[in-house]
Structures are given as structure tokens and as C-alpha cells.
Design a protein that fits this description.
This protein is of the alpha/beta class. The chain has one domain: NAD(P)-binding Rossmann-like Domain (Rossmann fold, 3-Layer(aba) Sandwich). It is 38% helix and 14% strand. The protein has a 5-stranded parallel sheet with strand order 3-2-1-4-5, sandwiched between helices. Bound molecules: nicotinamide-adenine-dinucleotide (NAD).
């Protein structure tokens, strides 16, 4: 299968790409940045298979999926970090929420039946492990973070 890993130059994307390639898939990554050196040790092919583009650029994403004959998308492109999200909530919304919408729209237009969304670790761990709330100077704003938008409802 031809798989596009969005955020493939990032931490989870690199490990996902490696695992997918080891399982026999043809892997491409879609990212605005190049993979850092330490991730190239994990997946040396990341650089040659990188399709550079922003997750907000739906035309580019669509063109890449078409030209690489993508069968499935694993979506890990995101901006991460609590403090940065408080400094730029609009930017985080555009990347993390609208980015997912774009991935789904591309999949809909191309009739791709397989989209895997890498959500936040809170969504994955709820009910399995205690999640300690860390009090910060800005903890009053904590519940307003965009992370909650992409979590499963309780
Ligand atoms: N690292 C973890 O332990 C962990 C655990 C659970 C869930 N997650 C989630 O997985 C996702 C990825 O996390 P990560 O740790 O790999 O982060 P990361 O920062 O290492 O990787 C994110 C990648 O997305 C890319 N990106 C950012 N904005 C983009 C844009 N506009 N267009 C295209 N690419 C863009 C970055 O360049 C980067 O390569 C996040 O949603 C995170 O919340 C991470």
C-alpha cells in the first residue's frame, strides 16, 4: 500500500514511517520541515520521500496524494506544546483542527477508505493511566486549549 504520513519529519511520524516501511508499505511523508538529523538515523529514507507542504494547503496535499497514488493517510502533522498553544491559539487551530479537516476532505475527494489520526496522548491514555494536571502560572486558561477539541468525548 502507498501510505502518506503527514508530519512524517516529526517524532511520531518518523517512527510510524519506519514501522510502515518495515511492514512492506511504500511510505511518503508530507511536512513543512525537513527531518532533524537524529530522526534520519531511525528512518534514513525520510528525506528522499519527503513531499514538502503545509497541512493547510489542501491543493498541494491533494496533488501529492494523486501523484504518489496514495492509498492511506496517517495524520501526525501538528503543532505541539501547551504554552505555545496559549500564545498562538488561532495558529494552532488552523494547523491542528483545520489540518485534520483538510486530510478528511482530501480522503473524501479521492475516495480513500483509510485515514488514521494520531490524536493527543490524553485521548489515548484516558481510563488507562492517571493524567496529572500540572498547575502553571497560566493554568486558568488550561481548559481552553485546543487539545480538547481533538479528544474523544467523555
Ligand atoms: N510525542 C508523543 O509522545 C505523542 C503522544 C501522543 C500523541 N502525540 C500527538 O502526535 C502528533 C505528533 O506529535 P510529535 O511528537 O510527533 O510532534 P513533532 O513536533 O515531532 O512532529 C510534528 C510534525 O508536524 C509538522 N508540522 C507542523 N505544522 C505543520 C503544518 N502546518 N503543515 C505540515 N506539517 C506540519 C512539523 O514540522 C513536525 O515535523 C501531535 O498531534 C501530538 O499531540 C504525540
Amino acid at each position: 500500500m502507498n501510505v502518506l504520513v503527514t508530519g512524517g519529519a516529526g517524532f511520531l511520524g518518523a517512527y510510524l514511517s519506519n514501522a510502515l516501511q518495515a511492514a512492506g508499505h511504500v511510505v511518503y511523508s508530507y511536512d513543512i520541515a525537513s527531518p532533524p538529523k537524529e530522526l534520519l538515523h531511525i528512518s534514513p529514507f525520510l528525506e528522499s520521500n519527503l513531499r514538502r507542504g503545509a497541512i493547510g494547503d489542501i491543493d498541494r496535499l491533494l496533488a501529492v496524494c494523486r501523484s504518489d497514488k496514495i492509498d492511506a493517510i496517517m495524520h501526525a502533522a501538528a503543532r505541539v506544546g501547551l504554552e505555545p498553544s496559549l500564545d498562538d491559539p488561532g495558529g494552532f487551530y488552523q494547523t491542528n483542527v483545520m489540518g485534520l479537516v483538510n486530510v478528511c476532505e482530501v480522503a473524501r475527494q479521492l475516495g480513500l477508505g483509510k485515514v488514521v489520526f494520531v490524536s493527543s496522548n490524553t485521548a489515548c491514555m484516558r481510563g488507562l493511566a492517571p493524567f496529572r494536571k500540572r498547575r502553571t502560572r497560566r493554568s486558568l486558561s488550561r481548559e481552553l486549549t485546543l487539545r480538547r477539541t481533538t479528544e474523544r468525548p467523555r
